[in-house]
Specification:
The chain is α/β, with parallel strands linked by helices and 247 residues long. It folds into 2 domains: 3-30 and 38-86 and 166-245, Rossmann fold (3-Layer(aba) Sandwich), CATH 3.40.50.1000; 94-162, Trehalose-6-phosphate phosphatase related protein, domain 2 (Alpha-Beta Plaits), CATH 3.30.70.1020. Helices cover 39% and strands 20% of the residues. α8 links the parallel β9 (211-217) and β10 (232-234).
Length: 247
């Protein structure tokens, strides 16, 4: 039996005291060219609805606003930590948003998505996404420095976000602290999910004896570091749902 399989068996043995944490885009919903077109897999709601009563808690930790995820995936008993936990931060200043928009408009194929406290610049549809990403990184880093923001990396997206609050790792750590589970699983597919993996590692190191499982959900843009840091690797969002069904 592999290490990942052993951890999953240990997780199943503590299912009633387990916390299941998952990303949304690329994990419950396939990655699409336009973020507004993303939809969860057709059976995602049913799988989560069936799992929620059997575990201590189910939570979606996402860069999207929680209201958007709840609309796309309306499942009772599922917690949503939107905008990586900084959803209650003040709105981004208008001049900072305007500066980010100007950068996005200067890069063919880039698209700015305002999110209230933050703003994401997507470049998946650029003619050369890799080159566009490098140019956008430098320009948006300057915007972040000018307005006291931080720049977060995602799958062909850069996000201007408030400093000092939130972040995926902090959002996961807050949920672990809130639920104090006997077992915890996190699944994700992106660079930011490495922070969530680290939060699980720190929780396991507290001496609580909790079982932790880190799941990498593969896609064309999944970073190598996420695969290397995972206990379990699944090939797609559909395979991740099969994993949840088997718990």
């Amino acid at each position: 039996m592999t290490v990942g399989a052993t951890r999953l068996e240990a997780f199943r043995s503590r299912l009633g005291g387990a916390l299941v944490l998952t990303d949304f885009d690329g994990t419950l919903a396939p990655i699409v060219a336009r973020p507004e077109d993303a939809r969860p897999l057709p059976d995602a709601a049913a799988v989560l609805a069936g799992l929620a009563p059997r575990v201590l808690g189910v939570a979606i930790v996402t860069g999207r606003p929680s209201a958007v995820v709840r609309r796309l995936l309306p499942v009772d008993g599922v917690h949503v930590a939107g905008l990586y936990g900084f959803e209650d931060a003040p709105p981004m200043p208008a001049d900072a948003l305007a500066a980010g928009r100007e950068v996005a408009e200067g890069e063919p194929g880039a698209q700015l998505e305002p999110k209230g406290p933050s703003a994401a610049v997507h470049f998946r549809n650029a003619p050369d996404p890799e080159a566009a990403g490098e140019r956008l990184r430098d320009a948006l880093a300057a915007v972040a420095d000018a307005f006291g923001l931080r720049l977060l990396e995602g799958k062909r997206v850069w996000e201007l976000a408030p400093r000092g609050v939130g972040g995926k790792g902090e959002a996961v750590a807050a949920l672990l602290d809130r639920f104090s589970p006997a077992a915890a699983l996190f699944a994700g597919d992106d660079v930011a999910d490495l922070e969530a993996f680290t939060a699980l590692d720190r929780f396991a190191a507290t001496g609580s004896g909790a079982v932790t499982v880190k799941v990498a959900v593969l896609g064309p843009e999944t970073p190598v570091a996420l695969r290397e840091g995972a206990d379990v690797i699944v090939g797609s969002p559909a395979e991740f749902l099969e994993l949840l069904r088997g718990l």
